[in-house]
Design goal:
41% of the residues lie in helices and 19% in strands. The protein is of the alpha/beta class. It has a 7-stranded mixed beta sheet, sandwiched between helices. The termini are close together. It binds ligand AR6. Ligand AR6 binds next to β3 and α1.
Length: 192
């Protein structure tokens, strides 16, 4: 694990592993606008969390239809080691000129706001949009790190620990490399 100290006893952690096994208050899912489940981290969350999460999503779908890209909806977490799952809809990457960066940034901000509204202390994110949705990893990682650090510095909220979770050593190395660079602008030397 690699940790950036974001000031005021807040931490941005970089963790390699399966997000469904890491205990936090809220786990963010990389969902689709239909909130219909799928493969990747979405499939892993539904299979580890059990059917209750999909039952709640069906009720939300009835109410709102689809979830706009860049936004998120909350359910409880079923059997997962968390209180909530925030189902965020990342952008499908085309060429980066169709508003993808702003939409990806919005996913992180909206979920952090949702955590703060619920007075949560910890939240974990997968690398949204970088699987099936094709977002180049380094670009997406830079947006994730910049957005979370900026949000932590701008908010005096309950959120103390943000975990960016990478599935695989290559992705983890890429995130940590960028964290060392972008983190210095906010925090000076990383704590490990
Ligand atoms: N824990 C942490 N990260 C994971 C896990 C896991 N268990 N499994 C995969 N990843 P993706 P997207 C990583 O494709 O690109 C779904 O079908 C994975 O290595 O899950 O936003 C949805 O229903 C990658 O780095 O999400 C949507 O239709 C990252 O999670 C669509 O895919 C995101 O990959 C969303 O595509």
């Amino acid at each position: 694990m690699f940790v950036l100290n974001a000031g005021n006893a807040r931490e941005l952690q970089f963790v390699e592993g399966d997000i469904t096994k890491i205990a936090v208050d809220a786990i963010v899912n990389a969902a689709n606008a239909q909130l219909a489940g799928g493969g990747g981290v979405d499939g892993a969350i539904h299979s580890a969390g059990g059917p209750e999460i999909m039952v709640e999503l069906a009720a939300i779908r009835q109410r709102i239809g689809t979830c706009p890209t860049g936004s998120a909806v909350a359910t409880t977490a079923g059997l997962l080691p968390a209180r909530f799952v925030f189902h965020a809809v990342g952008p499908i990457y085309r060429d980066g000129r169709g508003g993808e960066p702003a939409l990806l940034e919005s996913c992180y901000r909206v979920c952090l706001d949702m955590a703060a509204e619920r007075r949560l202390e910890s939240i974990s994110f997968p690398s949204i949009s970088t699987g099936v949705y094709g977002y180049p990893l380094a670009e997406a990682a830079a947006i994730a790190i910049h957005t979370v650090l900026g949000w932590l510095h701008g908010h005096g909220d309950s959120v103390r620990v943000v975990k960016l979770v990478q599935f695989g050593a290559g992705d983890h190395r890429a995130y940590c490399r960028l964290a060392r660079e972008s983190g210095s602008a906010y925090t000076g030397a990383p704590s490990s």
